[in-house]
Design goal:
The complex is a heterodimer of chains A (about 100) and B (about 100).
Chain A lengths: L13 E4 L18 E11 L2 H4 L9 E9 H4 L10 E7 L3 E3 L1
Antiparallel strand pairs in A: 1-2, 1-5, 2-3, 3-4
Chain B lengths: L24 H15 L5 H9 L3 H6 L2 H15 L5 H15 L1
Helix pairs in contact in B: 1-4, 2-4
The chains are: A mainly beta (about 100), B mainly alpha (about 100).
């Protein structure tokens, strides 16, 4: 299983974070929902915390990505430099291709 | 409105207090307890987080950091049938008596 694993996204793919607010535990912060960034790193696959939070085994594992955003695209009226970036680690089910 | 724990980017006019402070004994114990419970396979970190996030908004806002941990651990142990609310309360009563 481990060797056959291929993540759905590749480095530099442009992606949007799903703008949804499910009831249960999840690790996607509100401020990044609906925002567009690109894949900066692929960490591998990990047990799904959204399942583990309820005592389940967390399978199937979920790919985890480091996604980079431009700060000015994340915050309204961002006052810093235009080239400033923000990275957030996000699980595959939260990502959609742009 | 984001959930109460989902704090990133919330506007805040207050300066952040960066001073170090000494932990009380119970805070060390509260920090250590999930490590033991994880090693024994009783809880995992995601459950601990879910327990913290389940604290009602007003209670959450009123609680210092380790109180939230302790509350989460307590509700998880009750949920898993390892301790009962009654057992915890009677132990608390016993300890309070011993300390006073």
């Amino acid at each position: 299983m481990k060797d056959s694993y291929k993540p759905d996204y590749r480095i530099n793919d442009r992606v949007r974070i799903k703008n949804v607010y499910p009831q249960g535990h999840h690790r996607t912060p509100w401020f990044i929902k609906g925002k567009i960034g690109h894949i900066a790193a692929i960490y591998g696959k990990f047990l799904n915390p959204e399942q583990r939070a309820y005592g389940l085994d967390g399978c199937p594992k979920q790919a985890l990505y480091r996604i980079q955003f431009k700060q000015k695209n994340v915050w309204v009226n961002y006052l810093g430099e235009t080239q400033d970036t923000l990275c957030v680690d996000l699980y595959e089910r939260w990502i959609e291709r742009v | 409105m984001p959930n109460v724990h989902d704090r990133g980017g919330w506007p805040n006019e207050e300066a952040i207090n960066l001073d170090n402070h000494e932990w009380l004994d119970w805070q060390w114990q509260t920090q250590a307890l999930p490590i033991v419970l994880r090693q024994k396979g009783i809880i995992n970190s995601d459950e601990l987080r879910r327990g913290i996030e389940s604290i009602p908004r007003d209670d959450y806002e009123a609680m210092p950091y380790h109180d939230r941990w302790a509350t989460s651990i307590e509700s998880l142990l009750i949920e898993k049938g390892i301790l009962t609310d009654k057992e915890i309360q009677s132990k608390v009563t016993e300890i309070v008596r011993r300390w006073n």
